[in-house]
Amino acid sequence: MRVVKPDHPLIAHKLTYLRDKRTDSPTFRRLAEELMTLLAYEATRDVRVEPFAIETPVAPTTGIKLSNPKPLVVPILRAGLGMLEGMVRLLPSAEVGFLGMQRDEATLAITTYANRLPSDLSGRQVYVLDPMLATGGSMSDAIHFLIERGADDITAVCLLAAPEGVARLEKNLAEVSPPVTLVVGAIDEKLNENGYIVPGLGDAGDRLYGLV
Ligand code: PRP
Ligand code: URA
């Protein structure tokens, strides 16, 4: 797995305010979108394109456009929804599929409770969005699910990761094809005994949408 951690002061600045417990939900939602857009710039570096002939007011020339099939963006519900707008702002013609996953707060086991994705993902570039890579269980299950459906180019985008989650993804995806890229805003110190990222930002879903 290729890990990309862009080094940019605006990423660190926005992460600082996301981490701050005084940041309210409306501000948190705006910052999560903005941070996603910055990460999307790196995540889409290898998006598939093809030549495209146009005419400027002065002369004919060749540019590029996104290839078909268009990329698929998959936010992992619920917290991944907070990143969706920030991604499709840069890739407005992408299609969007959904995976609903929840981790049990006590056992940290993952349940998949919703899936609205094309059944055949052959030839598709897929961008999976989830703000938190903690134990790595949710992202690992999501990526295996996408590979089973034929996805042949997968990029995971996370705002924050724990080293334990990155290591688990590396181990679980070592043997799989295609290779996976992880784009992440920061890799924090550790997981605590409750499976939370330290220092982290708390529960991303709750901070985006409130306690349920
Ligand atoms: C959070 C987060 C990730 C998952 C990360 O979701 O958004 O999906 O935990 O943890 P892991 O790496 O240990 O799997 P949660 O299950 O709290 O659901 P939510 O998005 O609905 O709040
Ligand atoms: N999920 C979150 O929302 N936050 C964490 O720190 C870990 C998992």
UniProtKB/TrEMBL annotation:
Q: EC class of this enzyme?
A: transferase
| Keyword field | Allosteric enzyme, Glycosyltransferase, GTP-binding, Magnesium, Nucleotide-binding, Transferase
Domain Phosphoribosyltransferase, which positions? 6-210
EC number, UniProt record:
2.4.2.9
- Cofactors required: Mg(2+)
Q: Enumerate the residues binding 5-phospho-alpha-D-ribose 1-diphosphate.
A: 78, 103, 130-138, 203
Regulation of protein activity: Allosterically activated by GTP.
User: Is Ubl conjugation included in the keywords of this UniProt record?
Assistant: no
- Cofactor: how and how many bound: Binds 1 Mg(2+) ion per subunit. The magnesium is bound as Mg-PRPP.
Give residues annotated as binding uracil: 197, 202-204
The terms describing its cellular component in GO are:
cytoplasm
Tell me which Gene3D superfamilies the record gives. 3.40.50.2020
Transmembrane annotation, as ranges: none
GO molecular function list: GTP binding; magnesium ion binding; uracil phosphoribosyltransferase activity
Q: CDD domains of this UniProt entry?
A: PRTases_typeI
Q: Does the keyword Magnesium apply?
A: yes
Output the GO biological process annotations, alphabetical, semicolon-separated: UMP salvage; uracil salvage
Q: In which pathway does it act?
A: Pyrimidine metabolism; UMP biosynthesis via salvage pathway; UMP from uracil: step 1/1
Record field: catalytic activity: UMP + diphosphate = 5-phospho-alpha-D-ribose 1-diphosphate + uracil
Family under the similarity heading:
Belongs to the UPRTase family.
Question: What is the role of the protein in this entry?
Answer: Catalyzes the conversion of uracil and 5-phospho-alpha-D-ribose 1-diphosphate (PRPP) to UMP and diphosphate.
Q: What is the name listed in the Swiss-Prot or TrEMBL entry for this protein? A: Uracil phosphoribosyltransferase
**Gene source species:** Nostocoides australiense Ben110
Q: Which gene encodes it?
A: upp
